[in-house]
Amino acid sequence: MGIFSRTRDIIAANVTDLLDKAEDPAKMIRMIIMEMEETLIEVRASAARTIADQKELRRHIAKLEDLQESWREKAELALSKDREDLAKAALVERQKAVDMAEQMAAEIAVLDDALKGNEEDIAKLQAKLREARARQSSIMTRLEAANNRIRVREAYAGAKVDEAFARFDMLERRVDLAEGRADALAMGAAPKTLEEEIADLRASEKVEAELEALKASVKKG
Q: In terms of domains, do 139 and 41 share one?
């Protein structure tokens, strides 16, 4: 079943209210747009039929006008031959053609009103369709942003982050142990040689570098 039952329902509809009440706004806006597009096609098809009917009626009127002229000429001919009875009969037939042409002209006027209504409906439907498409773009942008936030939060709350912080703690513990050993060796020991001090610096730099790299990785994640 469609959301709308007729063209007037779409024209009078408040797209915002429909979306506010929808459980799935993205799905609802797609349905709204689809039904608007289908209705627009139907109204345009109706307008096309109306235009075709008008053209057909105008062709009939043109033929009836030719017929009127033909019967008038026949009436003139009959009068010129002193056949008033034939002239009167010809004029009766001419009047029938006149009456029929007038009836068709009235039908064209009715179709003109219907066509104007179709034009107004098409303009209003197009405006509603533009509104719905703009809302669709807004909804999809917001939905994408929300999904991105969800992915970021899941990344921060996931097992990988816990694992990274566990490694971070482990490296800090290794630094503590290295510093502890250095302090213990210094207790009552002879002063280190220059080469020993440089070797200690190099070892400490490797641990510090690994620690900084892990910090950068956690921060980037």
A: yes
pLDDT in tens, 7-44: 888 888 888 787 877 778 888 888 888 888 999 999 99
Answer yes or no: do 180 and 125 share one domain.
no
Which residue range is the domain that position 36 belongs to? 7-157
CA distance readout (Å), 36 to 29, 32, 44 = 10, 6, 12
Tell me the C-alpha to C-alpha distance, in Å, between residue 203 and each of 61, 125, 180, 200. 106, 75, 14, 5
Contact assessment for residue 122 and residue 43, using Cβ atoms and an 8 Å cutoff: yes
pLDDT in tens, 97-152: 999 999 999 999 999 999 999 999 999 999 989 988 888 888 888 777 767 776 66
Q: What is the token pair recorded at 72?
A: 């008038």
Structure tokens, 144: 């994408």
In this structure, the dihedral spanned by the alpha carbons of residues 166, 169, 171 and 176, taken in order and rounded to 10 degrees, is: -160
Residue 33 CB: number of other CB atoms within 10 A? 17
Name residues whose C-beta falls within 8 Å of residue 66's C-beta, 6 or more positions apart in sequence: none
Residue that finishes a domain, picked among 103, 126, 157: 157
* Sign of the dihedral through C-alpha 31, 32, 38, 42: positive
What's the number of domains the chain is made of? 2
Q: What is the DSSP letter of 187?
A: T
* Helix pair angle (25-80, 84-157), 10° resolution: 170
